[in-house]
Fold this sequence. Notes:
The complex is a heterotrimer, with one copy of chain A (about 250 residues) and two copies of chain B (about 190 residues). With about 250 residues, chain A is mainly α. Among the domains of chain A are: about 20-80 and about 90-110, no CATH class; about 175-240, Structural maintenance of chromosome 1. Chain E (Arc Repressor Mutant, subunit A), CATH 1.10.10.580. Chain A contains eight helices and four strands, in the order H-H-H-H-H-E-H-H-E-H-E-E. In chain A, strand 3 (about 230) and strand 4 form a beta hairpin. In chain A, helix 2 packs across helix 3 (about 40-55). Chain A starts with 5 loop residues before the first helix and ends in a 5-residue tail after the last strand. In chain A, about 25% of the residues are buried. In chain B, strand 2 and strand 3 (about 60-65) form a beta hairpin. Chain B has ten helices and six strands. Chain B is α+β, with helices and mostly antiparallel strands and about 190 residues long. Chain B has two domains: about 1-70, Arc Repressor Mutant, subunit A; about 85-160, Arc Repressor Mutant, subunit A. Chain B has a three-stranded antiparallel β-sheet with strand order 1-3-2. Chain B has a three-stranded antiparallel β-sheet with strand order 4-6-5. Chains in contact: A-B, A-C, B-C.
Amino acid sequence: MSEPPEQLTLALDGWEGPLDLLLSLARAQKVDLREISILQLVEQYLDYVEQARRLRLELAADYLVMAAWLAYLKSALLLPRATQEVGDTDPDELALRLQLRLERLDAMRDAGARLMARDRVGRDVFRRGAPEGLQVVRRSFWDVEYYDLLAAYGRVSARSRPVLHVVREREVMTLEAALARVAGLVGSAIDWRDIQAFLPDVTSAALRRSALASSFLAALELARQGRVELHQERSFAPLYLRRPATG
Amino acid sequence: MSDAFDRAVEAVVFASPEPLTVEAIRAHAGEGDVRGALARLVTRYRGRGIELVERGGRWHFQTAADLAHLLRRGRDEIRKLSRAGIETLAIIAYHEPVTRAEIEAIRGVQTARGTLDVLMEAGWVRPAGRREVPGRPLTFATTPEFLSHFGLNSRRDLPGIDDLRAAGLLDPVDLAFDQLAVENLGEED
Amino acid sequence: MSDAFDRAVEAVVFASPEPLTVEAIRAHAGEGDVRGALARLVTRYRGRGIELVERGGRWHFQTAADLAHLLRRGRDEIRKLSRAGIETLAIIAYHEPVTRAEIEAIRGVQTARGTLDVLMEAGWVRPAGRREVPGRPLTFATTPEFLSHFGLNSRRDLPGIDDLRAAGLLDPVDLAFDQLAVENLGEED
């Protein structure tokens, strides 16, 4: 078995994928990519891959995928148009798309070469070797007013000084007193009576609120024990109490 | 005196290790007609061994291009970019902002891990926001350093960009194909 | 043409990272009257923003000495002191000399490393010797600049706690709002 020609090996190593190889083949064909023969290009590519295979060169999978696709394209291009199944992509369309791709890659390859050929800094033109440099010296001014300082100390002091909570003594009606009073009064209540009627007669509004709260709790407790019945139309409507009918 | 101000602008640009914008020059040279001073300085240095140039809106002094052979001697060659690197840079420059997938669609191969890194490390390419499509892919664009390194005033100065655009070669294949199809339909009518 | 050679000498000196001897210039610019070229360039640049000068037999460009002030530009910045900074400053003012641990005990939170640095950088606080207790912690005190910034003749001018309360600065309503703000913002921002 003869050694594969080294030149081909190197050439294959140099391609950056099947599109790259196709572009090189196309460029060899014509200067203007718009006039290349796609069919001829396909055949060149397939020859190339076949040759590599005969020489037992390792071909990357994407080259083989492209070869299979091009073989399909070739057969589609050669078949009479009428025999094609409806729904198949038009082979001319596929060929045109391939040509458009090649044109675009070619344009960018050309643009890259022209870019690299420009006068580049550090290769063709040089900046000053030892610039003095520009410096910006920052001076900070702090925006703090005297008030801010005092407010901050006030804040810290308020936060750290012990706080004493003193609860003022005030008149209340205890739950025990309310229980005794409501239980005593309900015994004579055959009809529904508003809970207000069970409260002691006091002038202090605070004590009256306390009495209402305690009497309400007393009423609930007595209802639980079955010693009173409660009735209310809806939320926040007057609450009525009476002696249980069977009691 | 415009001459005193020209001197100030000249000194500031000369002393800076980086190309400077007009605003940066003004910050150091003080209030005055910076653009006017720059224009006068460009004229003054024209044909000398040193030139004042604008690159991507930033100004710097550099040696005249025809003297490259004298200055290159004894210097390390600047790092060579791989073929993949050159193509990728060209695609980004001519198409920006462009996603990695779009670069790969044009090149027909996956972008190797190091290719974009090298371009970003050189300071020529930067991430430029995400495209508002599903997956929100990152886009890439060139930097002012790119323009400055390759001696371009702006992207409009990219070699042949107007011709490429006019020929539709900067449009994606799908778009170019559709346009061709429309033209052919028109001819058949 | 002497002008072509002048250009070469100009570019070589400009691009060099260090001052060059006449021989070194010749090595790059080629055979020619280097001294003559240097003399013509000195004349050409005289009075400009850039000068060509010789120092100890070596030549280099430098910005004109009278423009050196442009290269160092001062910029004033008005900055806000953080809440932690103001509180720490107030505690030092009222309690000086005071250790870091004491400041933290009064504030009820740890003092970030940068807070005292900022106050010292501002020139309002200085280290004021060590307290003679185990560990010999450093104490801090205010400076004369602190007094002058806040328009005080002496620390005795600082209002007492009763004055602060009378002025509503110990108002617990404010405290409640402050603490909400602290919880929301995080301490030591």
